[in-house]
Write a structure and sequence with these properties.
Distance between the termini: 40 Å
Oligomer: single chain
Pfam families: Rce1-like (PF02517)
Low-confidence stretches: none
Helix content: 55-70%
Protein name: Putative metal-dependent membrane protease
GO molecular function: endopeptidase activity
Keywords: Hydrolase, Membrane, Protease, Transmembrane, Transmembrane helix
Order of helices and strands: EHHHHEHHH
Number of helices: 7
Structural class: mainly alpha
Strand order of the largest sheet: 1-2
Mean pLDDT: 90
Shape: globular
Amino acid sequence: MGGYSFGSFALSPGKVLIFGAASALAFIMVSLFEEFLFRGYALHSLTIGVGFWPAAFLLSAIFGGLHLTNTGEGIVGALDVMLYGLFACFTLSRTGNLWFAVGLHSAWDFSLTFLYSVPGSGMHAKGQLLQATLHGPAWLTGGAAGPEGRVIGLAVLILSFPVFSALFPIAPAARGGRH
């Protein structure tokens, strides 16, 4: 759609390995922290009091709202992050564990920030692979927020629910009324 250009390589071959490995490790750690914080114990504990989906909505709204503190993040990006939080809760309800959400979160952050070298939640990382540029309207590129701030991301996340639902039937624990 013309909103992204790869540009040239920004790193020497030796630094690609160093920054690539450091980025992968950092995003695995971020994903573990955020998924276990927002979709782990807090979700489990809050579910006992208010039910799974009210708890999922509240924690996902907080997750999205906290991203508004990132420089360059906007309301569309925060909604995108909130919708991702709900999708991660949905994957938890279908699989019975957090590992799909952790893997998806890690892969998304690593791909955006290192491989495609665009802002993630409005932040640029040091050691990006490419000298990529975003150009065009913010609804297409996300503007300063990066791809999380684009309307297309919301549409992709919305479509992810029925696709995941078709691929992963309800987890046995969910059939027992836990969620």
